[in-house]
Amino acid sequence: QVQLVESGGGLVQPGGSLRLSCAASGFNFGNYAMSWYRQAPGKERELVAGFLGVGGITNYADSVKGRFAIAKDNAKNTVYLQMNSLKTEDTAVYYCRARGWPYDYWGQGTQVTVSS
């Protein structure tokens, strides 16, 4: 059974940091392109950061460049999102995604709230 389980979300003050984790199981993690998306209330889901394929090349949304970093550990079947210098506009539900044609898996999401 395929599972993507996100963790690490929570409430943080502006300027703070969080690290999200996404633990994958039920598929060959190393053969999938992993990424993080987010969806704020009333807005469409958007790409935050991701690996372009199964290698190490990454891309980021302009709004998070220089503040967020995506990483993965193939031995642990886990992808991470380190989020620094958080802003109120980063508040959203963050989702992990795994794509490997023809499959496309999503996690259930973890809430990140940035507020003073």
Describe the protein in words.
- This protein has 116 residues and is mainly beta.
- It is built from no helices and 11 strands.
- Strands 2, 4, 5, 6, 9, 10 and 11 form a 7-stranded mixed sheet that branches. It has a 4-stranded antiparallel sheet with strand order 1-3-8-7, with no helix packed on it.
- A hairpin with a 4-residue loop joins β7 and β8 (78-83).
- The radius of gyration is 13 Å and the shape is globular.
- The model has no long low-confidence stretch (mean pLDDT 96).
Secondary structure tally: strands: 11
Mean pLDDT: 96
Structural class: mainly beta
Give the helices and strands as they follow along the chain.
Answer: EEEEEEEEEEE
**Shape estimate:** globular
Low-confidence stretches: none
Major sheet, described briefly?
7 strands, mixed
Count of helical regions: 0
* Radius of gyration based on Cα positions: 13 Å
Q: What is the share of helical residues?
A: under 10%
Topology, element by element:
Layout: E1 3-7, E2 10-12, E3 18-25, E4 33-39, E5 46-51, E6 58-60, E7 68-73, E8 78-83, E9 92-100, E10 103-106, E11 110-114
Parallel strand pairs: 2-11
Antiparallel strand pairs: 1-3, 3-8, 4-5, 4-9, 5-6, 7-8, 9-10, 9-11
